[in-house]
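Quick one before lunch.
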Amino acid sequence: MSVGISLEGRVALVTGGASGIGRAAAVRLAEAGARVAVVDLDEAGGRETVERLHQVGGEAALIVGDVSLDRHVQSAVKRVVERFGRLDILFNNAGIIRRRTVLTLSEEDWDRVMAVNVKSIFLMSRAAIPVMQETAGRGSIINTGSGWGVTGGAEAVVYCASKAAVINMTRAMAIDHGPNGIRVNSVSPGDTDTGMLRQEARELGQPWALFESDSKDRPLARLGQPRDIADAVLFLASDLSVWVTGANIVVDGGGLAG
Ligand SMILES: NC(=O)c1ccc[n+]([C@@H]2O[C@H](COP(=O)([O-])OP(=O)(O)OC[C@H]3O[C@@H](n4cnc5c(N)ncnc54)[C@H](O)[C@@H]3O)[C@@H](O)[C@H]2O)c1
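Model of the nicotinamide-adenine-dinucleotide complex:
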């Protein structure tokens, strides 16, 4: 008897899929049989992801664009439907961080983080939901939150604000769109070994080894790998989670547990 998760016939759009968690999720969804469109600003990284998707036998497309700009978002969703004919899964994952306090953060950086981390989810979902309803009759939207959307963190004020917004807008969207067959959930990673976390180490002037040693104090005693988060995304994308909406799944090796 197989309990394999199948996404055969489904189409997924993954934002921020050129690296880290987005890339790992794109690969995981493709391994389960989905056709995947990657939307990212980073063309070179996006090409590499598409190559990996082809390696696992998946049909894939790269759309280079900025998810904080409505014209890019609208054109991305249109291109997905032109290419694949439908849209079932939207992983709103693109995100950025600035390690600053209210006294050191610029207004420009406040606006940029809120635009990429929060406004993009509004824009993408606004473009995708009608298309999901028309082409698939239902849909699953997964938003990337963060442990720092649940608790506060040092020198990360706009990031914490943005991720708390992501987690609560997920609940609001679940209420609004559940009756139309659209499930909306968030995945909140803890420290995961990606370009973003390494950039944080540089921004704070801290050695990478400190991030690794800090993780040893948490219950599962290691940093997350992008694949750890991708497995939760796969669950939320699939029919194994058909009665799950408005949830925030924390995937952090127990970091928030105590
Ligand atoms: N790595 C962690 O420890 C961690 C922890 C909690 C939450 N997260 C969240 O996970 C998500 C993925 O981050 P990651 O760690 O994989 O980082 P990452 O930097 O490896 O990936 C982020 C991707 O988003 C893309 N991107 C950034 N701005 C964009 C824009 N305006 N339009 C399109 N694409 C854009 C980048 O080019 C990059 O490919 C983010 O939302 C992040 O906040 C990460």
